[in-house]
Amino acid sequence: MRHADQAQTPRAPWPERRKRATQAQRSRDRRAGRDRRDRRDRRDRGDRRGWWALGLILAALAVLVTSNIPTYPLVQHAKVVVPVAQGADAGGHRTASAAQRATPITLITPITPITPTLPPLPPLPTLPPTPMPTPDPNLEANLRMGCTFGGMPPVLPGVIFDGVNTALQAAPPREVALTFDDGPTPYSTPPILSYLEQTHTPATFMVEGQYVHLWPSLVQREWRDGFAVGVHTWDHPSMTRLTPAQRHFQLDATLQALHAALGPTACIWFWRPPYGDYNTAVVQTAATFGLSTIWWDVDPRDWSLPGTTVIVSRVLAQVRAGAIILLHDGPALRDETRAALPGILAGLRARGLRLVTLPQLLEDGQYLRAGVRQRWAAAMS
Ligand SMILES: [Zn+2]
In the annotation, is 213 catalytic? Predict the structure, then answer.
């Protein structure tokens, strides 16, 4: 086309052509600018329509959501807090102040609890009461002491010097009884007890009430460990020089101290008079407490501290089958007595003599009517 125009129309001079070209270019530029504006206006109108549509959709959604929210729990769970007034009325109810009474409070009916209420359990069937007597903690110890269930052996007549019952002309048992007097004391008794326990040596302790009262744990240890326990008065007087009331006190107070330490059912049934000092009145006073009177027949005089080897040799020189050996675990230090024990035990074993408690010796010497061993076996079977 351009070539055709150029061919039909004569060429205009250069300035004219330059002017026309410029006018044509400007016309094209105007058209292009108009087109751009039109496109921009159309795009803006489209955007505005999109935003309007989105807003309408969101508004519709909001209406839908809020219309489905259950509003009752929010309201009904709200608590109405009423401040507690200074005082309460006679019925124990809260009393509101004047300001609170002036402001009406809308109370909301409480909702029913969500947790379902379970039906009450049926009551348990009531069983008939079963008699369950409390086990006597002294049962074993009492049986080892030669006691019956809840009873002491009958008081032995006279004074017992050894385990040989000459009235029956029975053969003396190949046994001896170690007895320790004047304790329990915290300085001498524990080392002696420990050695006897470690060597499993039965023994008997004749205790003073004043020391049982002062150190009950020591006699409790003796009792629990299976040793036999007898009375040696409250504070070691010569009983023959006391009035009847004083004699009564010496035995009664000591038995009370023993029962306080060992329990009311502890069976204590023998005693030894201090210094071996007794007469008929003394023995009869002891009998009123159910106490049999025990003496000894082997005395190494260990309390005089003659030396360990002397104590051992004196015991082994005097000992025989059925002997009752007198030693001491108080009130002064008895280190020599403790140190003499290994030699005494070895010498007794060499002579074929078995160490037993005093009740066992009297049982095997036919002094006790019912057998300690039989009772013990029957109770444990
Ligand atoms: Zn004594």
Answer: no
Of 162, 181, 297, 364, which one is the catalytic site residue? 181
Q: How far is the CA of 286 from the centre of ligand 1 (A)?
A: 16
Tell me the per-residue pLDDT of 80-119, one tens digit each, with 9 for 90 and over: 444 444 444 444 444 445 555 556 666 666 666 666 678 8
Among 264, 281, 282, 280, residue whose Cα is nearest residue 272:
282
Question: Which CATH number covers residue 234?
Answer: 3.20.20.370
Per the structure block, which two tokens stand in for 67? 């219309």
Q: Is residue 76 part of a domain?
A: no
DSSP single-letter state for residue 84: P
Q: Is residue 77 among the annotated active site residues? A: no
Which pLDDT tens digit goes with each residue over 181-222?
999 999 999 999 999 999 999 999 999 999 999 999 999 999
Ligand 1 centroid, distance to 256 Cα (angstroms): 19
Q: How far is the CA of 170 from the centre of ligand 1 (A)?
A: 30
Q: What is the domain range of residue 222?
A: 146-380
Catalytic residue among 162, 232, 236, 328: 328
Q: Are 253 and 209 in contact (CB under 8 A)?
A: yes
